[in-house]
What does this fold into?
Amino acid sequence: MIAIAIDGPAGAGKSSVARGIARELGFIYVDTGALYRTIGLYARRRSVDLEDDGAVAGMLEEITVELKFIDGEQRVFLNGEDVSPLIRTADISMMASRVSALPPVRAFLLELQRDLARKNNVIMDGRDIGTVVLPGAQIKLFLTASPECRAQRRCRELAEKGEPADLQQVLAEIRQRDYNDSHRAIAPLKPAQDAQVVDNSDLTLQETIDTMTRLIRTRLTALQMNPTERC
It folds into this structure.
């Protein structure tokens, strides 16, 4: 199986880009951020004290998370409930950042992610796919953009949904998320040593997909010529 890891900060467009590349290549797309958002949603619903190890352990014992691919799209199920549309709010985004720093949560989701990669050709995006989750991934990319650019994109996205937002507030939230993700003790956000970095601050979504697909196809060709590198 071939694994493609795409890491990068919040708002760089990893999910949209990874979905586009997956369609181009016929790979299964795994949105790992959705898994952490789902845990964050449950923690918010239950008002779990994330500083209490016992409370976190108890929460995880109550949770079943499943990924299902319906009509070609990934859907996330929390204890049998499709929560896909409920995990994309700014509040749950911040909760995802908090729970992703907890070792028990990371261990809880790690095997699920690795099992998917063992059984399928996958493209997986997140914060630490190439460094921790799939360190043996044959192709690693790190997608980034300036905080200002990411904030502007987020504001446009919210406006299209009829949810106008203050640019400076969104920018502050993105910078805080970047800080949290890059300074956490467990699996901090950073490019893998063998990852190719792509800055899409000045690229459209389609230009980003095209650029990264070209990089991936070049690497896939090299793997075909040297099969031993596939391991």
The two ends are 9 Å apart (CA to CA). The first helix runs from residue 14 to 25.
